[in-house]
């Protein structure tokens, strides 16, 4: 019988390995959008839906502490990137978490979120 | 017994003219009044003042789902004070309150004798003293919570302490809260050390922490009146009146300390231990903010 510990150890390694690969190889636009959606939805990652609506994404139970992100889709990637990296830069009183600066999301995941939001809102 | 000690010492200090309690709560009173004014203003006209207080909330949602103006005493109902869906949902659940059975068990536990023949009645003047906690014990120089007092009563009578947060301790507290319904919360700040405890609690309330860099203010002051996902955020004002609560998510009763520990964790840090100095001082501060409110617990929450 395979012990539960071993199974979870194995699946852990797999997850870590995939994450490493995901961060290194150049993703196709489609993969990027998929990763973006996962990061956007994941409670311990972006968790963007907790505070933002995104018209067109068909997500249930979106919060309303921040603006609808569909309104920001036409802004340059860099603007978006900086906001997710550290929202206090353009708004010192922002209650949006500094998910980039606090290492909750990687560089690639931020780019993926942007790709996802722009894909949905276009 | 516990509460009385504090009172007697306080009276002694007052009589000797060293200081009187009023001096130590000047800032706390300012904070409490400011908090009341903020919430009364915020919920006086959410539609008219939406750009100031609810810039990203859909106006249709305000029209359909918000309740206003919210009167001061209504803040005792948490989110149900301003959000219709929560109010309706709670009213429906409370047709058959899920806290009723644990409340009965709490009454039973409270009145059951310890192995030495004594009982909680030997420690507390009466069961209805929920509104007197937490208080600052000037002799021991610390904040004493009701949960702590219950366990100290047990230990003084040779019983093992109960696990904090849920289970029997929450049931006993539910009974004590029930017996305290209508009693007014009146946290006192009797001396310099108590003032420090209040200030520590306040700092904790404002401190941004964790990988979400969030603090209590962002969710329960500025954020109150908005939603995180589907969770409509309650105002700090009046938050303590209804504890312990039967929370559907917990599938049982939980105490204020349990709720506080959970909310601290939600800022993205490891869950803190209940009944530590820091968490007791946070409860002291939050409870002070609700001075003047009546106890209406136990109640039900999502």
Topology:
The complex is a heterodimer of chains A (122) and B (302).
Chain A: H1 4-24, H2 29-41, H3 77-85, H4 107-121
Chain B: H1 2-16, H2 26-42, H3 50-53, H4 59-65, H5 84-93, H6 100-111, E1 135-137, E2 142-144, H7 146-156, H8 168-179, H9 192-206, H10 216-220, E3 227-228, E4 231-232, E5 245-247, E6 252-254, H11 256-265, H12 277-289, E7 299-301
Parallel strand pairs in B: 5-7
Antiparallel strand pairs in B: 1-2, 3-4, 5-6
For the record, give the distance between the C-alpha atoms at the N and C termini of chain B, rounded to a whole number: 35 Å
Helix content of chain A: 40-55%
Give the count of structural domains of chain B. Answer: 2
Structural class of chain A: mainly alpha
Low-confidence stretches of chain A: 1-22
> Can you tell me the overall shape of chain A?
globular
Q: Helix proportion of residues of chain B, in percent?
A: 40-55%
The CATH topology annotation of the largest domain in chain B reads as Cytochrome Bc1 Complex, Chain D, domain 2
- Oligomer state equals heterodimer
Number of strands of chain A: 0
Strand arrangement across the biggest beta sheet of chain B: 6-5-7
Question: What is the end-to-end distance of chain A?
Answer: 51 Å
User: What's the alpha carbon Rg of chain B, rounded to whole Å?
Assistant: 19 Å
- The CATH class name of the largest domain in chain B reads Mainly Alpha
């Amino acid at each position: 019988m395979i012990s539960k510990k071993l199974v979870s150890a194995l699946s852990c390694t797999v997850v870590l390995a995939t994450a490493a690969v995901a961060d290194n190889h150049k993703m196709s636009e489609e993969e990027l959008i998929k990763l973006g959606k996962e990061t956007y939805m994941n409670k311990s990652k972006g968790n963007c839906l907790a505070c933002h609506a995104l018209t067109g994404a068909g997500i249930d139970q979106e919060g309303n502490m921040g603006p609808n992100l569909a309104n920001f889709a036409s802004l340059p990637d860099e603007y978006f990137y900086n906001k997710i990296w550290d929202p206090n830069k353009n708004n010192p009183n922002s209650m949006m978490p500094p998910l980039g600066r606090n290492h909750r999301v990687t560089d690639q995941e931020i780019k993926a979120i942007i790709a996802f939001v722009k894909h949905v809102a276009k | 017994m516990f509460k009385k000690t504090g009172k007697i010492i306080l009276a002694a200090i007052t009589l000797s003219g060293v200081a009187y309690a009023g001096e130590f709560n000047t800032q706390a009173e300012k904070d409490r009044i400011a908090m009341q004014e903020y919430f009364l203003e915020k919920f006086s006209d959410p539609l008219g003042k939406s750009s100031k207080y609810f810039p990203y909330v859909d106006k249709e949602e305000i029209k359909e789902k918000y309740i206003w103006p919210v009167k001061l005493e209504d803040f005792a109902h948490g989110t149900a004070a301003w959000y219709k869906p929560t109010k309706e949902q709670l009213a429906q659940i409370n047709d058959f309150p899920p806290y009723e059975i644990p409340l009965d068990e709490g009454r039973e536990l409270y009145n059951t004798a310890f192995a030495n023949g004594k009982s909680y009645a030997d420690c507390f003047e009466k069961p209805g003293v929920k509104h007197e906690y937490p208080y600052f014990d000037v002799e021991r120089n610390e904040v004493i919570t009701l949960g702590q007092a219950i366990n100290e009563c047990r230990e003084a009578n040779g019983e093992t302490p109960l696990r904090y947060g849920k289970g029997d301790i929450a049931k006993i507290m539910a009974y004590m809260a029930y017996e305290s319904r209508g009693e007014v919360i009146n946290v006192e700040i009797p001396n310099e050390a108590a003032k420090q405890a209040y200030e520590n609690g306040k700092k904790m309330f404002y401190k941004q922490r964790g990988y979400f860099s969030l603090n209590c203010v962002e969710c329960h002051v500025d954020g109150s009146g908005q939603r995180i996902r589907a969770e409509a955020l309650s105002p700090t004002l009046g938050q303590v009146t209804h504890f312990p609560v039967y929370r559907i998510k917990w599938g049982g009763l939980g105490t204020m300390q349990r709720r506080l520990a959970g909310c601290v964790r939600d800022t993205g840090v490891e869950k803190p231990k209940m009944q530590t100095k820091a968490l007791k001082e946070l409860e002291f501060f939050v409870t002070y903010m609700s001075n003047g409110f009546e106890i209406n617990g136990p109640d039900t929450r999502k």
